Amino acid sequence: MTAPVRVLFVCLGNICRSPTAHGVFRQRVADAGLADRVDIESCGTGGFHVGEAPDARATQAALGRGYDLSDLRARQLRPDDLLAFDYVLTMDHQNQSVVARMADGQPNATEPRLFLSYARGRREEEVPDPYYGGRDGFGYVLDLVEDACDGLLDDIREHRL
């Protein structure tokens, strides 16, 4: 058996966008019967919330669509993550820039990619940070994440499994 495909979702604090993507993609992978073939994690470029559960609004919005984020805890991106993961997916250009700088000079580092590059039905490039907005922002994030998760799973099936 080959090593599992490793996917890392990255945002700023790892309490809204990346754990939402983590939870949605984990469910998509499980529903596809691939849980033993795909490892999924999430992290933040900042260390503001290390050890904390996802934002309550993100957790509630996700639960409303059948995704459980309750076991997830925030962690900060580490340089070795760029060697350990096959996909390093950032939620926006700012975090992509931070990750790219961390990868610079590391031979064999995985090049970060914008997560929404896998979205099929959207033109957005970035998943907006809903932290300072209202509850509607978390539903919109879920819309974007679900679309990109479907495209990502298709890509993994086509190119990695």
From TrEMBL:
Spell out the InterPro entries in the cross-references. Answer: LMW-PTP, Ptyr_pPase, Ptyr_pPase_sf, Tyr_phospatase_low_mol_wt
Q: Which residues form the active site?
A: 11 (nucleophile), 17, 129 (proton donor)
Q: Which UniProt keywords apply?
A: Hydrolase
Domain Phosphotyrosine protein phosphatase I span(s) in chain numbering: 5-155
Q: What Gene Ontology molecular-function terms does this entry list?
A: protein tyrosine phosphatase activity
Asked whether the UniProt record includes Hydrolase among its keywords, one would answer: yes
List, alphabetically, the PANTHER family matched: ACID PHOSPHATASE, LOW MOLECULAR WEIGHT PHOSPHOTYROSINE PROTEIN PHOSPHATASE-RELATED
The entry assigns this protein to a family as follows: Belongs to the low molecular weight phosphotyrosine protein phosphatase family.
List the protein's name: Phosphotyrosine protein phosphatase
